Amino acid sequence: MNATPKRVEHQLTDKGYVPVYTTAVVDQPWDSYTDEDHAVWATLFERQREVLKGRASDEFLASQEAMGMTPGHIPKFSDLNPILREATGWELIGVEGLLPELDFFDHLANRRFPVTWWIRKPDQLDYLSEPDLFHDLFGHVPLLMNPVFADYMAAYGRGGVKAHGIGPEALVNLTRLYWYTVEFGLIRQPDGLRIYGSGIVSSKGESIHCLESDAPNRIGFDLERVMRTRYRIDTYQKTYFVIDSYEQLMEATGPDFAPIYEKLAQLESIPAGDVLESDTVFNKGTGEGWLDEGGD
Ligand code: HBI
Ligand code: FE
Description:
10 strands; 5-stranded mixed sheet; binds fe (iii) ion; 42% helix; 3-stranded mixed sheet; binds 7,8-dihydrobiopterin; Phenylalanine Hydroxylase
């Protein structure tokens, strides 16, 4: 069997036809991975581990090692699951790709992390428009070994199920929280800012850009500020939000979000590149290279 994703259908959206995957949970077809698939994993793994030295958070790097992830072969979910269950009660399930949000939230709320079972092709090493196995397994899974972050992700899932019941605006607010923390978050360490966001750690260019370019803003995390801030999915971030600790994330998801959603519904969203008077600013970006399309 050739390891390529089975797309179920394409929905026509304002971005053209987008693949809508089944919500089916699939077993990782580990025996169907080709030598090319394993080589893509090895290349990306070794390259990213090199780039992330001194750039990724200590917790991320230590957790990845604690899981026993190595470049040699694509890891087996069945090897990682006992380790992960023991550490924080999480487990990996195989999926075709992006899930409808409610399905995704429900998995997180039950400590199941959906990992795309297929890996990108050699000509897609530097950019992929949707999460593949490398993004999910190398990027998202290691921090699930950290009890506080693991609790945050489960709390996020519960919040997502609730937000889905409240309505689309609440969902947008919550998706921004995920975007600016789980996907593109930075954390402050005594020795400087470091990366913990999965969307960054799985990207060589953005691993360097997010910390070393003068273009982006780097602003202290604030829950409501993040929930109001728009983002684009196809460029480097204009703003990165910095947490002091994973505990700060967990505390932020403590309160019931319903009153926050109501408050935010009365406020304008914030363009991705803006800096506010009330922001804790680590770096006010030059904005160099920003594609000014639609002001997002
Ligand atoms: N589905 N498989 C998968 N992985 C994700 O990271 C994911 C998803 N569906 C929706 C989604 N992420 C984001 O919209 C979250 O903010 C909900
Ligand atoms: Fe992701």
